[in-house]
Design a protein that fits this description.
Elements: H1 12-33, H2 38-65, H3 74-86, H4 100-116, H5 124-139, H6 148-158, H7 164-188, H8 192-204, H9 213-231, H10 241-263, H11 271-286, H12 292-311
Helix pairs in contact: 1-2, 1-3, 2-3, 2-4, 3-11, 3-12, 4-5, 4-6, 4-11, 5-6, 5-7, 6-10, 9-10, 9-11, 10-11
């Protein structure tokens, strides 16, 4: 692990305090509303735990791979903020409780890490298989994740994992969860599950655009944050092509996630995934930028987002 001095727009202490404040604003009202329900408390706390671990994922993996210019606690702040945004405008307002949306976050982020992991030619096929297996397993619960599979095949080319063995391993990773699932269905004689999965596919790919003000506000915040975050990708002067493409690939996943989130918004299943990748890209931006514009945008983003979360 490496250790670097904080050179971002805010000190680590300030970011930590803001993270706690945002976490309280986002989660406390829901915990109070469900104070009499043990199940609701558990699902809320599980959602909060996954959110914090997602921020830790970016922070710790950066220490290992160093895809951010400077070490920062911004991942914790932005993931808490964007998960709060992800709940706005939904048909089911309790979107920050543990739900299938977190499956998309876990599967895409972990698959991303396995794919970008630098290894030798012997281990590359194993990592590609793990990456595709995660996406495939997640698609059993979220069929919309099928769209990300071609994106990760592109990533295999970008990160020099497109050999015949890697391609073969990726296909093995894709089909294994489905073969195992069919085996379980056969043994348990639960053929009805197949019909339910077919209905889930139709539901997942049915166009459902945002239909209220808060839904549009959340998407606009994600979109503008992504545009600002993407601006840092064009100003990178890092000679390490591998590190440069980690951030670019994260930006590509975010773009796809936002498009899908817009087209299938009312299902609410991709909001949390989008929140993670928006966090990834905007953190990359704030690890590079320490100018007046970045400071103004940060405080505007924080104030407007919290306003939307409180009012929604």
């Amino acid at each position: 692990m490496r250790k670097s001095k904080n050179k971002t727009i805010l000190s680590s202490t300030t970011v930590l305090v803001l993270s706690i404040v945002v976490g309280i604003i986002v989660w406390l009202p829901q915990l109070i509303n469900d104070i009499s329900s043990l199940n609701a408390w558990i699902t809320n706390l599980v959602g909060l735990a996954i959110t914090i671990l997602s921020g830790a994922f970016i922070f710790l993996k950066n220490r290992e791979i160093r895809f951010l210019k400077h070490e920062t606690l911004f991942p914790f702040l932005f993931i808490l903020l964007f998960i709060g945004i992800a709940q706005t405008g939904q048909v089911y307002p309790k979107n920050i409780q543990f739900n299938v949306g977190y499956v998309g976050l876990i599967c895409t982020s972990t698959a991303f890490y396995r794919l970008i992991y630098q290894s030798n030619k012997f281990m590359d096929p194993w990592h590609t298989m793990e990456s595709m297996m995660l996406l495939s397993a997640g698609s059993l619960f979220m069929p919309i994740l099928w769209v990300f599979i071609p994106i990760f095949w592109l990533g295999m080319e970008v990160f020099n994992k497109s050999s015949f063995r890697c391609i073969f391993s990726s296909f093995m990773g894709l089909i294994t969860p489905y073969i195992l699932s069919l085996g379980v269905i056969y043994l348990m004689e639960a053929e009805d599950v197949i019909c339910e999965f077919y209905e889930a596919i139709k539901s997942a790919y049915t166009i459902s655009l945002p239909n209220n003000l808060y839904a549009w506000a959340g998407l606009i915040i994600f979109f503008i944050s992504s545009i600002i975050g993407a601006s840092s990708l064009f100003n990178q002067h890092d000679d390490r092509r591998y590190t440069h493409w980690i951030n670019n690939f994260g930006g590509i996943i975010l773009l796809v996630s936002i498009i899908l989130n817009f087209l299938f918004y009312n299902d609410g299943i991709l909001n949390i995934t989008t929140a993670f990748w928006a966090t990834f890209l905007i953190t990359s931006y704030y690890s590079n930028s320490n100018n007046l514009f970045s400071k103004i945008f940060f405080w505007l983003l924080l104030i407007i987002s919290l306003g939307v979360i409180v009012l929604a």
